[in-house]
Amino acid sequence: xxxxxGGSDGGGNLYLRPIFLGNLSHTCLASxxxxxxxxxxxxxxxxxxxxxxxxxxxxxxxxxxxxxxVFLKDAVSIPEKxxxxxxVIEINGMNxxxxxxxxxxxxxxxxxxxxxxxxxxxxxxxxNETLFVVxxxxxxxxxxxxx
Length: 147
Hints:
Layout: E1 19-22, H1 30-38, E2 58-63, E3 68-72, H2 78-91, E4 104-107, H3 113-124, H4 143-146
Antiparallel strand pairs: 1-3, 1-4, 2-3
């Protein structure tokens, strides 16, 4: 789907949505992913004539199997945010050694605030003794089987 509406929000929205990176090599490490943003490869030709790009500061990388989410620090300015959004478009489909032979890069859907709230909520949860058991049949499962 397409992104959010127009940009007349007083310039206050420098929040960068998490970036989804897919089609990752199974040997890819979080540090390899960080390097894409912290030490961006100079583009071959393109707008910046192959000059060295400024880094995109990474907050954290959430690695999964074959994909990950990259959380960047908030942009310092609107042009900085636009530069980052452009970079994500540029690296989509790129061959990056140790990461992917055809990287899938896009901003994650949703704005990440829900995830952030969930993380905050989880920090406050105290451990308890309740265990949820799924996929058992009430009538054929004996109490002893669960204990």
